[in-house]
Amino acid sequence: MANMKRWVVAEPYLELDCALGEAPYYEADSHQLRFLDIIKQKLHVIDLNKGPSSLKSLDLEVTASVTADIEGRDEEIIVGAKHGFAILDRRSGKHTYINHVWDHRDGSGKEKRMRFNDGAVDSQGRFWAGTMDEPLVTKPTNEGVLFRLDPDMTLHRILEHVTIPNGMAWSSDDTTMFFTDSPEKKIFKYDYDAATGHISNRRVFFQYEGEDGAIPDGLAIDCEDNIWTAIFGSSKILRLSPTGEIVGEISLPTRCITCPAFAGEDLFVTSAMEEEPEKYPDSTKYAGSLFKVSVGIQGGRVNKFRGRLS
User: Fold this and answer.
1) Rounded to 5 degrees, what angle do the CA atoms 271, 167, 301 make?
2) What is the DSSP string of the chain?
3) Are 299 and 261 contacting, i.e. CB atoms less than 8 angstroms apart?
């Protein structure tokens, strides 16, 4: 702990009132940052050349929880939506499903009570995204699934019996995949075969042992394979070394921190409304805002989905 690096963020980059701000995504081609408010069904976009005043917000027709760019398409993105993977028109907010993920194997009711949560695209253009019980409908249980949508549009069930699938990333040498299941307070690592997308040999990379009720949420990886994980309920981002040791900490002025994303050497962080405002009144002022901190290191690569869309 002697070599711990610490950052303190006192105020937001963009003061906002997201109910559940999530899924920050840096668009390197346009130097824009987008993120979602899952509960309010909004897509927010900021031109980082112009700053917070450039904010544009788009109302969505559907609950969307995670997004990715599509190779060769500028006006559309792929999203993990309520019932499956969809293409979202960035101008109109309209969506078209390309893959409904639930079928006869799942029985009745799953389409109603489940939604996507977090996800990411690997180096081969496959879109990985996990589903969970919608907390507004039912208490989350371990009926979640981690799906993988390949460029040839085939859908694969990679992991079952997950509760709240969250931050995921791949090492720079493409041999390791990281995956968070929040209620377990663990980030797992798997051996990863980039050619096939196969994962194996699960083990614990990091287990959070801090505050009661605080859990690992979204994450980002930097160019040196350090993991930056949001700890929801703690007001912190933790920087983890490639061996899983805590080597850095960002303190923020609200508790419900959800997900970080790199834009160059800046780390942008989304947040959600304070779940216990009477107990933590100081956390409410900037709850749901977007934060920014310069951390002095570049983020890892951000990949685009390579789906063969018509």
Assistant:
1) 105
2) -TT-EEEE--S-SB----SBEEEEEEETTTTEEEEEETTTTEEEEEETTT-GGG-EEEE-SS-EEEEEEETTEEEEEEEEESSEEEEEETTT--EEEEEE---GGG-SSHHHHEEEEEEEE-TTS-EEEEEEE-TTTS---TTEEEEEE-TT--EEEEEEEESSEEEEEE-TTSSEEEEEEGGGTEEEEEEEETTTTEEEEEEEEEE--SSTT-EEEEEEEBTT--EEEEEETTTEEEEE-TTS-EEEEEE-SSS-EEEEEEETTEEEEEEB--S-TTT-GGGSTTTT-BEEEE-SS-B-----B-----
3) yes
Please, what sign has the CA dihedral across residues 213, 199, 249, 132? negative
Specify the pLDDT at position 245. Answer: 97
**49-77 tens-digit pLDDT:** 999 999 999 999 999 999 999 999 989 99
Q: Are strands 84-89 and 95-100 parallel, antiparallel or unpaired?
A: antiparallel
Q: Stretch 257-272: mean pLDDT, rounded?
A: 98
CA–CA separation, 168 vs 303, rounded Å? 13
Phi-psi region of 264 (alpha: psi -120 to 50; beta: other; left: phi over 0): left
The mean per-residue pLDDT over the stretch 97-111 comes to: 86
**pLDDT band, residue 168 (cuts 50/70/90):** very high
Scored b (16 or more CB within 10 A) or e, 37-53 reads bbbbbbbbbbbbeeeee
173-219 pLDDT per residue, tens? 999 999 999 999 999 999 999 999 999 999 999 999 988 889 999 99
